[in-house]
Design a protein that fits this description.
By secondary structure, this protein is mainly alpha-helical. It has 16 helices and no strands.
Length: 411
Amino acid sequence: MKTKLTKLEKYWILYDVGNSAFTLLISTIFPIYFNSLSAAAGLAEVDYLAYWGYATSLATLMVALLGPVLGTVADYRGYKKKLFAGSIAVGIAGLAVLWIPSHWLAFLVIFLLARVGYSVSLIFYDSMLTDVTEPERMDAVSSYGYAWGYVGSCLPFILSLVLVLLYETLGITIQTAMAAAFLLNAVWWLGCSLPLLRHYRQAHYAAERQRQVIRGSFRQLGRTLGKIREKKKIFLFLVAFFFYIDGVYTIIDMATAYGSALGLDTSGLLVALLVTQLVAFPSAIVFARLAKTRDTGKLIRVCILAYTAIALFAIQLDRQWEFWLLAVCVGLFQGGVQALSRSYFAKIIPAENSGEFFGLFDICGKGASFLGTTLVSLTAQITGSANAGVAILAVLFVIGFGIFSRVLKME
């Protein structure tokens, strides 16, 4: 097997470097800027949190509904690249103009469109894995994508933080700083996307183009959903993935909010987030190398067990150093569980239907994220304890581990 990455594999990995900067902005700078806009409009803090949550949930719901249909359309010959380019255009354009709205509602609408464009692009991007590399190289290529995405996204993120936090020292207004930060990340995302857009060719496809593409995609999706229970291994993997990725994404999405709820220093939490990204880079590469000599399924189980331990540790977390330890541990296994799950799924689905199946894969990921944050929030409100809210994640990891173990026995 070849050890060096091909040019096409590198271009595919580069897109992960580009879009990952947007992910960091979502969890850090975006909420801060939205808070300033809502405060200027006299919006109560509880309403600010609610509206931000509604926008995030609506984006998740839209992607969950659009994903399988667009993924099915992408499986027709010649459509995947066009849909990929279109979704990128929506995401990047939305990000580039986010600094313009002065009203919180207009900002939320544009943010919603940008996030949907970003999330939909990942459906096509993930399904391209079957076209850009061979099955025996998928674990490594997928892992390198996450690895370089983690470290590469830090550069525009750090520059954005400098602009936003030190705008007075730089002699500019906060609006100018935000405009520069959003435009910087939009240009970064676009620049990292162009090589893949230029060189990608759809090698696997389900059928030739049809006149009634949308209607045909719905019919094909219906047939697939009807048969998916017959594809027991794929079906059980998606169920297992739904549960264990629930905990992973919830920890990623709510780590900073959880630390803030415990009264930990905000600047320390932001730095800890950077530490997670930096630790995840070498860790993902290690998992890529381990996958060459170790069974991918067993490595995924190791990651799930590690996350179970992380969730149990977080239950008693109440000090800054414990949060930093948590950040390091999350970084150690975050890239591994995401990358290997993606490559494992790519290897067990029909290559010609990769877009369609990754649309379902995305539903499980995005739906789980929505459910996980909801469960944590409800548990915390009912019990009055943020630590108790985290406890529910350990249960979900255990369920995911049990079902995934059944999948491995089917091999």
